[in-house]
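Batch queue: ligand-bound targets. Current item pairs a single chain with pyridoxal-5'-phosphate. No template structures supplied; prediction is de novo from sequence plus SMILES. Inputs echoed for audit trail.
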Amino acid sequence: MLTLDFHPTGRHFLQIPGPSPVPDRILRAMSLPTIDHRGPEFGALGLRVLKGIQQIFQTKHPVVIYPASGTGAWEAALANTLSPGDLVLMYETGHFAALWQKLASRLGVKTEFLGLPGVEGWRKGVQAHLIEERLKADKEHAIKAVCVVHNETSTGATSNILAVRKAIDAAKHPALLMVDSISGLASAEYKHDEWGVDVTVSGSQKGLMLPPGISFNALAPKALEASKSAKLPKAFWAWDEIVEMNKSGYWPYTPNTNLLYGLAEACDMLLEPAFGGLEGTFARHRRWGEGVRAGVRAWGLEIQCNEAASYSPVLTGVITPEGVDADAVRKLIYERFDLSLGTGLGKVKGRMFRIGHLGDCNDLTLMAALSGCEMGLKLAGVKLAGSGVQAAMDYFAGHPAPVALQKAA
Ligand SMILES: *Cc1c(COP(=O)(O)O)cnc(C)c1O
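Prediction returned. Tokens below.
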């Protein structure tokens, strides 16, 4: 039982794909005293984080910051742009796509859930051609929005968002494009403006290296326009008042001051030119993903994502052999080695576990995670083809990082 008195020796290895470990530099920034959210210093902080987060989303348009988890920002994206009964085309990449679809239905829009049959769609990114075909068939433009998940955290597959944009354009369809990049942002490449996304939803506790508690809607002019006539009830989530007050760095309600200190620090870390800026960040996570997958392959285990172009730089899903309960392996690893791994969710519960390589990591934190996995798999009686730890060491040693490894200075 975890209590505040629970202090195991050394460092806990939080290798789930979010929340990700919060670096000391961010914890220190968040420990500053809470200030008056209507006072003069606050406006400067507000403007600083709003500018920083725009750079992370790669957008010139407003980004709304909510004191809520990612789920709140999912609701905000839909509530601001849609009317009761509107038809929304959503794509099933995995458990998070399914949860967003459930939320949309509860909110009072009609959803159509497109995807490959069975578990096959949970092993790949979005198949953009299916979206194009469906939109071409929608001659009356009944579909008001297309919703996809950028990085499907339940499986470890990253979708090509530009391909989805092109599919919508090829069908000459006016639907809004809404993207969940809750776990992708700040670890996997993401370009809100260049990819023509109308609303991007994200959260604090994944690639941004912050604790849970704030989430985002990155907007585009077309989404702001849609929000003026959208009829779903919205009050707390309504963009208009927030965007207006944000112009001077303030919010209509009490914002999450200490998390905003952390966000300011996170933006500095992620954008730091000495470490390659955002491109450097993406390159580091691609390389860590390669190293972890080299390890999984050496064990002789299957990777949940079976489409190489969609391998996630954020996490890797590992399928356990038939008859081996992945959750029992996770439990053993947690109890013996104080290492937390992600559980299989929804359709793949018990069949796989997830190793996070998002947020604040380095070669050795990942080597520790792989060592814990390898010891645990062996203790659970899984026959491994070889040493994943050795293979990952060979990969990391043989492939020096293209830019400096450490984000924190
Ligand atoms: C974590 C996550 C969510 C849910 O966010 P919460 O902060 O738990 O509400 C939604 N979508 C994706 C892809 C996620 O990774």
